[in-house]
Amino acid sequence: MNTKDIYKESPIVKRRKLISFFALSLSTAAAIFGLFWLVFILFDVLRHGIQGINWELFTEDPAPPGIPGGGLRNAFVGQLEIVFFATIMGVPLGILAGTFIAEYARGTKFAKTVSILSDIMVSVPSIVVGTFIYAILVKPIGHINLGGVVAVGFLSAIIAIIFGGILGFIVNKLFSIKNPATGRFINLLITLSSVLFGLFSFLYLMPKLVDKIQGFNGWAGAAALAFIMIPVVLRTTEDMLSLVPWTLREAAFALGASYFRVIKDIVYRAAATGILTGVILSISRVAGETAPLLFTSFNNSYFTMNMNEPIASLTVTIFNYAMGPYEDWHTKAWAASFVITFFILIVTILSRVIISWKYKG
């Protein structure tokens, strides 16, 4: 009997093979079970939703209750607006916060605390987020329109960040700064200029916008969705940046690159696929949220693109139509569900194609 036969007949090998086969069978069964329900849900949405797809669904506004016909143009436009502005608010903040935690605060107690809080925020029910945003952006406190003040302050902060980024880009392009002390001084001047510009924007926009943003409005809905997106993007960005080997940064430092340029040109490129995955995941999650919008943007039966007032959304419309007594409403609810599912699928595929094409090397 040769060594190969002894190895094959060993009881230890047989036991390990049996355990491996058992574990593999359970894993395969669990994967098939989950895949079955995914296919079942998609097939059910496709089977019911395709019946209500027509041109009028996208080009006409809702008909009066009980009268067949009409469409969901107001809901489609409102949903795109709310998700777009939520993405504009949530994705940059999440990426910047994740970058700070993974790069500048790496290994500190503050970074660990923020990571734990982000994990908690990911699992917070969306209806809690909706009531929180309702309390600070929708419901007035006495004679103070706190929602308008917060909205104007946030807009001013975004304007200041954009102004600082443009100013820093211009300075880096026009001047070649090699002295670290000079670079720190110029960065301080840029920061102070951005803060002053933000304060000026706040004082200028306050009397013009604060009274227009009150009660149920689209900005509150976008803020609620952005609040849900931020921890998802933050944790994904932090994890992806932490996986980039530190030796890549050291190689760039050895060539004289600043930390900002290392992050922008080296680290972000290496982690682009993972960061984009987190962004898509966050958009996919908020695109189907209903509860936060019930407390913030509410709904509107008419077509409007004014984010300062209640605005229609596809998810709230699906909820109302699905609970309604009319068969035509049920058909439109299935069609809207199909559109949301198809939209997320297309965005995911296009993003993957773009990433694989741009970073295939």
Descriptive notes:
This protein has 361 residues and is mainly α. It has a domain of 206 residues: MetI-like fold (Orthogonal Bundle), CATH 1.10.3720. The chain contains 15 helices and no strands. Helix 6 crosses helix 9 and helix 7 runs antiparallel to helix 8. The longest helix is centred in the N-terminal third of the chain and has 39 residues. It is flat and about 75 Å long. The relative contact order is 0.14.
- Which CATH-level-2 architecture of the domain at 78-139 and 215-358? Orthogonal Bundle
Q: Ends: how far apart?
A: 52 Å
Q: Based on DSSP secondary structure assignment, what is the total number of beta strands?
A: 0
Q: Radius of gyration over alpha carbons?
A: 26 Å
Average of the residue pLDDT scores: 84
Shape: flat
- Assign the CATH superfamily of the domain at 78-139 and 215-358: MetI-like
What's the SSE pattern? HHHHHHHHHHHHHHH
Low-confidence stretches: none
**CATH class of the domain at 78-139 and 215-358, anyone?**
Mainly Alpha
* Helix percentage range: over 70%
**Residues in β-strands, percent:** under 5%
Q: How would you sum up the major sheet?
A: none
The SS-based structural class is mainly alpha
CATH topology of the domain at 78-139 and 215-358: MetI-like fold
Counting DSSP H or I runs of 4 or more residues, the number of helices is 15
Supply database-style keywords.
361 residues; MetI-like fold; 0% strand; mainly alpha
What is the gist of this entry?
The protein is an all-alpha fold and 361 residues long.
